Structures are given as C-alpha cells and as structure tokens.
Amino acid sequence: MADAGMLRFHVPEPEVRPGGTPDFSDVTIPKAGSVPHPEIDVDPRDIRDLAFSIIRVLNRAGEAVGPWAGLLSDDELLEGLRHMMTLRSFDARMQMAQRQGKTSFYMQHLGEEAVSCAFRKALAPGDMNFPTYRQAGLLIADGYPMVTMMNQIYSNEADPLKGRQLPIMYSSKEHGFFSISGNLATQYIQAVGWAMASAISNDSKIAAAWIGDGSTAESDFHSALVFASTYKAPVVLNVVNNQWAISTFQGIARGGSGTFAARGLGFGIPSLRVDGNDYLAVHAVAKWAAERARKNLGPTLVEYVTYRVGAHSSSDDPSAYRPKAESDAWPLGDPIVRLKNHLIQRGVWSDERHTQAEAEILETVIAAQREAERHGTLHAGGKPSTRDMFEGVYGEMPPHLRRQRQQAGV
Amino acid sequence: MPRRTMIEAIRDAMDVSMGRDERVIVFGEDVGFFGGVFRCTQGLQAKYGKSRCFDTPISEAGIVGSAIGMAAYGLKPCVEVQFADYVYPAYDQIVSEAARLRYRSNGDFTCPIVVRMPTGGGIFGGQTHSQSPEALFTHVSGLKVVVPSNPHDAKGLLIAAIEDPDPVIFLEPKRLYNGPFDGHHERPVTPWSKHELGEVADGHYTVPLGKAVIRRPGAAVTVLAYGTMVYVAQAAAEETGIDAEIIDLRTLLPLDLETIVDSVNRTGRCVIVHEATLTSGFGAELSALVQENCFYHLEAPVVRVAGWDTPYPHAQEWDYFPGPARLGRALVETMEA
C-alpha cells in the first residue's frame, strides 16, 4: 500500500469557494417521472435505491409526469403556489424589517418554500410537526395568521409567546406546529416520542420530525432513528438538505455516505430522496410517507434535495464562503417558477395573473405588517411586560421567583 | 401499616399512579420485562402491559427526548435513567427542552415528566455509579429537583412528582434502596422492615414538593441535609452529643427557605452536608441563602461538609464520603467558633 506508515488527515472540501465557478456536475439529477412509486407496504429492502435517486414530477417543460404525478387538482396547485408566494413575500418584508431595526433576527426560506408548504397539505388535522426554524410554510399553508407570526417576530405586546422567544421560533399546538427550540436536532427524537404516544393511545394522529442536513450529525438524530425503528413509530422523518449548514457544505455532515437518506437504511426505515423544489413531488412523497405512518407501517425517512438561496440568517453573509452565483447554477431551479410554469402549462395560470397575484400578496403582507406594527416592534411601541418575564417558568410560581419578581419591582 | 423498602415504595408509587391515571407510562433501560436493575419497576409491565411499561434502547437522550414528545402529546411519562451518572447524554434534552418548553411556548406546550435516577455512593460503585449531580439540575430554571431519604417520603414525593405539571428530576439515593443507613457503612443497621420510616401506607398519598421536614429538633446548630446525609447527620449529632436540629430538605428546587431560615434564626449556627463535590455544589447555594437571610442571627460562620473535589473514587470510597466523623468535627468546630 502506498504511503504505508504515514497517516493523512482528511477534511472534505466543497467543489468551489468564492471566486470560483459554481459546479454542480457531481449532483446527479434523474429524469422527472423516472423513479418508481412503490406500494406503501413495500419491503424496505426492495426500495433501497430510492435513497440514492431523486423522485421528481415536474419536468423541464413544466409537465407533471410519471407515477408520482396526478394527486393534486388545479385548485390545490393554485393554492400551493399562493402559499409559496406568500411565504416568499412575507420573508422579504420581514428580512427588510430586521434591516430596519424592527427586530433582532430573521431567517428566510428563499428557494425552499416548496418543502414546508407542500408537506403541510399531506397532513391531516391533529397531526404534529416538530419543525426547525425554516418551515414556516407549515403555518402559512395551514392558514395561521401572518399578523400573529409578525407579532412574534417583533416581540410586541400581542406576541403570543410574550417576548420570551427569539424571532421566528413560533409555537402553535392548534396548527400542529410544536414550539421551535432553536437548539438543533433536539426536536427530532421528541417527534418520535409524540408519535409513540399517539400509538400508545391508539389514536390516529401522526408526527413529522424536521432536521437540516448539518444537524443530522447530532446524536439526537441517531436516537430518533433507533426509537422510530424499534417502536415502528408513526412518524415522517424529514431531512431538508439545503446544501449549507451556515458556512459548512453538506459534505461535512454527510461524510462518506452517499446521501442523507441512506442513513435510514441501516435502521430498516424506508428512505426516499425527493426533489425539494418540486411542489408536486414533495407533496406526493409526503403523502406516501404519511399514509405509511397512519397504517401502522412505521416511519419513513425523506430527504428533500434543495438549495438555501438566502443567507443562513440575518446575521450571516454567504458571500464569504460560497460563490455568489451558486444559487443560479443550482440544477433543480426555483420552486415557485417551476409550479408557475406547470400551472401555465395546465392552462390555468398566466404571467399576467402571476404578476397580479404577486402584487395582491404583497398588499396582504403589508397590511398584516401594518396591523402588527400597531402593537409595537422590538424597540418601539407596545411590548410584553417585565412581569411577563417571570410568569410561566412553572405552572405555579415558586417562592424564589416571587421574591425575585418583587426585587425587580414589578 | 405495611413496611416497605425504598425500592418497594418507589414501585408502589408508580403502581398507584398508573392505576389511577392511564396517561402515566414508565420506561427506560431494562425497565420492562426485567423490572429495572434495581427492580423498581418489577411487575409493572405484567400488570399494565407493554404499551405502558417497556424497555428502551441504551439512549438516555432518546429516553428523555421521547418522553418530552409524549408529554407534549398529553401523556405523563415517568422514565428511569439507570444511574444518575448516565444522565449526561440527556442533559441537553432536560436543560434546553424539558425545562423551557412551558416558558418558551407560553404554556402552549408543557412537559409533565419525571426523570428518576439512582444517585449517590456508598455501594462501591466507582466513578460511574456513585455521582450526585443534583446541583447541575438545581441551576436550571424550570426544573424541580427532589431527593427523598426514606420509603414513606419516596412514595409520597414520587406520586406528587408524577402529578406535578412540570418536569421533575427525582434522585433516589441508592445506598438507601434496600435498607437504611446509620452513617457507618461497616455496621449492621435496622432494616426498613423494622424502621419507623419504612412504614408506607397502601394506596394514594402525596408528600408535597417544596416542603422540608425537621428530622431531629434541636437548639444548638442547624444541619441542612438531604438523602443519605440525613442519616450521617443523625449519627454525628448522637456521637458528639450536640443538640443539632436536622432538616431533611427533601426538595432542593423549589427550596423550603422558610423552614431553613426559621431554624437557623433560632440556633444561630448552620452546617451544610452533602455527598456531592464541594465546589459549586448545592451547599454553596444554601450557604449563600443562610448568609443573606440569617446574617444577624449567626453566631458562627456557615460551614459546608461535602465530597472532596475529586472524581468519585473506588477503593477510597469511605475516605471520600463525608461520614459522621467529618461532620462531627464540623459540628464541634461550629459550636466552639
């Protein structure tokens, strides 16, 4: 063996760094419609190759093709487009509000809108998501009021979380949206626990776990897969692979394994990769996985292959670690443009209507923003009271907190 | 009244709770079919079925993380971590998630879980079966921390913990599991079956969280103790002849400050004893509170007697352990100060 006796340390590197030409030639994109659609009770051993392929429905001509197509009506697709456009518009306004100093922090979804918007429509009322910070589409697509989201972002007097939590860390049990922690991966095993509880209670509800490519490296991801596999928990295990964990390319967390989806195979969990920028494909795969969970067939791991077009957060500048034009080179395109083209191809949409819808949506978002700002922003207007800070640590306030609240003079 | 060991009392608390409320479920490593390495859950799977008492993979983060999800769903998990020394993989779940869920979601989600774990030394368990990590939990807003010292309290406190709406860390002094302790490891002791505090009523009762109890009334000095150290304190008082008032704290968070302050203001002296290492131990908090609240009544400096600041040793266990001799010397010095 060459170099025997001298060990070399290996650190993976992305193909390109700032200044270089974006190169996704190593990302193999199968043709839309080419990946088979197995029965939901398929033996996981028979679909191992689905963890290495990419399920796609929309082709380059904007047509929905193959065995995963055909689930959604015109109206449902138009609604999906509206959800994604709303999320994008919402993000743009809130990103700007952060830059204007109206809040401390923001995280946008640019390029990833299809994942959470389409997934939500595959769930039933009462199901529970355990999201990360980049799935606000779950709320938008479920009709959660934008003004309430903004109140939370502004930590104002109408913030349902009383100013206690960082912006965008929403919580809504009513809308099947578990409180976002801000710690990474911790919620993945909690989702499995929630699903186990539903099974223990002979309920019909299922859970959905969410994690990013980078955070799959956390041990909670492993615990979650072990528990989900052992107890056949009714849970959909989602991995959003948006290629970047802040500045770290996905190869650092992925290591030598072919894909993140492949992580599920060792646990005997059916594991699929899907085009995360294809609204129809995301919805179809989510529906398949949710149905498996609901029929006592256990967990499914789904990797959404997508690209984080924006910065990680309002505190991040990606130009320091990746080429500026990289997002333009991303081979799976833009989820909104792709669904728009499909709807035009179906004959139910047009460029004019799209432009008009953009304007209408922006108006709705601005109206919500005005309404929210009447309740204050982080540094101006109404805000939660200092007394609120002491409330809710426990069901009943213990004596030591009572004393401290007195000391604080509230 | 029936007499039970601490193990039987703890098992009875879970049995009673599971019988009364079907949301209560019990799980952990070796907890199901076998009934736990200390047998605390023996018979519960046979009685309540595998959906309510089951074995888990060896994953403390998985045990506590899944329990949090179950609590968010609406169940009331009472989970076992096999030894407190093994809780660290679950620490993030406890500190960042269980403790803060109610607060960060403004009550949208809550986390009524109990994490039981055997704590403390005295069984030649070495570094990995002897630690007392209570201070790592008393530092966390949103948790409650309980350490019972006898079968009667263990049952009542555990039922109260299971019924509590918030996460409770329930530390069970393993030296007391099978029999009491009189502070001297080498001498035979009265078994729980003949011990007054081994009397454990059948059925449902609670011992409220956040309430200390005076184990031995006295006028000369207040000793603050919990768990195994309650017996060390009793032995030290007896052997020195000092009229110590011994307070068994029972719950460390929230703390029964009123009982402590009332006692120290009467005695004017305070000695704190715990098994855990000294530096930044719970004794530091107790000492600060006594100083802040009782300074003008104090006749002597507040003294702490604790485990040395070393990892928990194996062969030198009883040199490490703050036994009656060390505590006795501290009592004498405090009386002479």
UniProtKB/TrEMBL annotation, chain A:
Keywords, sorted A to Z: Oxidoreductase, Thiamine pyrophosphate
Gene Ontology biological process terms from the UniProt entry: branched-chain amino acid catabolic process
Region called Disordered, residue ranges: 1-24
Amino-acid biosynthesis found in the keyword field: no
Homology family: Belongs to the BCKDHA family.
Protein purpose: The branched-chain alpha-keto dehydrogenase complex catalyzes the overall conversion of alpha-keto acids to acyl-CoA and CO(2). It contains multiple copies of three enzymatic components: branched-chain alpha-keto acid decarboxylase (E1), lipoamide acyltransferase (E2) and lipoamide dehydrogenase (E3).
Identification of the protein by name: 2-oxoisovalerate dehydrogenase subunit alpha
From TrEMBL, chain B:
Pfam families: Transket_pyr, Transketolase_C
Keywords: Oxidoreductase
GO biological process: branched-chain amino acid catabolic process; response to nutrient
Keyword NAD: no
EC number(s) recorded for this UniProt protein: 1.2.4.4
Highest taxon listed in the record's lineage: Bacteria
Transmembrane stretches, start-end: none
Major enzyme class: oxidoreductase
Protein's UniProt name: 3-methyl-2-oxobutanoate dehydrogenase (2-methylpropanoyl-transferring)
UniProt source species: Mesorhizobium muleiense
